[in-house]
Amino acid sequence: MRIFAGDKVKALMQRLGMEKGVAIESKMVSKRIAAAQKSSKAANFETRKHLLEYDDVMNKQREDIYGLRRQLMENPTNASTWWGDTGVARDLLADTTKQYLNPNLSEDEWDIENYKVKIPHRSMH
After folding, report:
1. What is the pTM of this model?
2. What pLDDT score was predicted for residue 51?
3. Cα–Cα distance between 53 and 46 in angstroms, integer?
4. 20 to 30 A Cα–Cα from 99, which one of 1, 36, 51, 89?
C-alpha cells in the first residue's frame, strides 16, 4: 500500500477507522491493488526486456572481438588485418579520436582528458 498509495489514501484509511495490519475486504480496493500489481509487473518486464536487448548487443560485440583476436593468434601473418592502412585498430583509433576530438567542434569543446584515458600515451624510452 505504501508504494502505490499516497498520503491521501493513508489519511482516508485512518479517517475510516482502518487499523494497520487489518486485512482490507473491499472489491474496489482489491481491484486497484491488482491493477497496481499488473502495472508494476509490466514495468519490470519492460526493464528486463531492455536489459536482455543490451546484453545481446554486448555479447555480439564480444564475439566479434574474440573472433578477431583468435584469428590474429592463429595466424599472426595476417597482422595487417589489425594494423595495416585499413586495419581494425586504425578504424578503432579513428572512431575514438572523432568521438573525443571531433573536428566539427572547436578545440575548447574537445574532451582531451577522457581521450587520454581511452588512448593511453606510451613513452618511447
Report:
1. 0.38
2. 92
3. 11
4. 51
